[in-house]
Amino acid sequence: MSEPTTPPAPRVRSLLSPGRYVQGPGALARLGGHLADLGSTPVLVADDVVWGLVGHDVTASVQGAGLPVHRDVFRGLATAATIDRLVGVVRELGADVLVGVGGGSTLDSVKAAGHLAGIRWASVPTVASTDAPTSALAVVYTADGAFEEYRFFPRNPDLVLVDTQVVANAPAALLAAGVGDALATWLEARATAASGSTTMAGGAPTLAGTALARLSWDVLWDNALPALDAVRDHLVTPAVEKVVEANTLLSGLGFESGGLAAAHAVHNGLTAAPQAHGLAHGQKVNLGSVTQLVLEGAPTSEIRDFVEFTTRVGLPNTLTEVGLGVDDVDVLRAVAQAATVPGETIHSMPFPVRADDVVAALRSVERFSTRVRAEAGLPAPVRHVAPH
């Protein structure tokens, strides 16, 4: 008689979120009050460009709340060295709140340093170009700009504050890049749900995370184009508010608690290609989304619609646009190998994916997307440049 077996423990489902999310035109005026609820000695981390744009408003708000203004100059990428330097700044000043003001690398560096220093941290994105602000993880790069690792933290930012007028004042290409990052959220969440893989939140996908990912997708298809038109005139409209929320909050919660899959793995692989350096995160993710659709064998109509829509948004969906070509086989193989290393999110797809599969998908995208664009009367692919 065989011994009775112990039934497997039920899989835990997990949903993560920031402590508070604040969004709207003029929201920077509220920053000081919210920081005062978190601590008494904040350090504000921003690069010189960002500080030149919002430093006056940030300073006025922080001083108005009776807090000291300590600003640290951010330079470059979220690297291990940058993070360790910020930890040293925190300890030297005796700070109890670390505040990232700017883009994804600034915010990720602040999250990682805040965690290592054992203090609270806040995200104040000045663009809606990624879904990084709300998450409990950071993407860390090498000094050369190649993907190095994900770092995970036990909690999310205590505060995420987005001033939509500041976002609307930034180049529309940055908002478009955020659309590229956020569109991948649903494609990856549905793949993760199908495979039952573990999400960035550390458990099985939650219904809420998957639903928020789908909501982000729907909001963007309905609002991205009018929002981009408004932002080109630096206007905040209901469409802009919806897209900023989709890019930041809905996509942030959706990717973290719904799951990542092939699109972001291809992005990580593309960081190994010098030709793609300098492109925005969401630009590379969008090529990853098209690649994922090809890997899935998605209906041709679905891939065609995605190519047409993202072309209108201003996102790359061909190799040409990221500085590569179908004949760059060695580079594409390096990209594919980096995208399929053990532990990469591409293994959350509901079927095995090999490096050869990724190479074939990447090469096939070029001719297909070019033909779709021609048939729709859309511009032919040209090399994209990073938005500034």
UniProtKB/TrEMBL annotation:
CDD domains: GlyDH (cd08170). It catalyses: glycerol + NAD(+) = dihydroxyacetone + NADH + H(+). NCBIfam families: PRK09423.1. Gene3D superfamilies: 3.40.50.1970, Dehydroquinate synthase-like - alpha domain. Belongs to the iron-containing alcohol dehydrogenase family. This is Glycerol dehydrogenase. It comes from Kineococcus endophyticus. The keyword ATP-binding does not apply. Keywords: Metal-binding, NAD, Oxidoreductase.
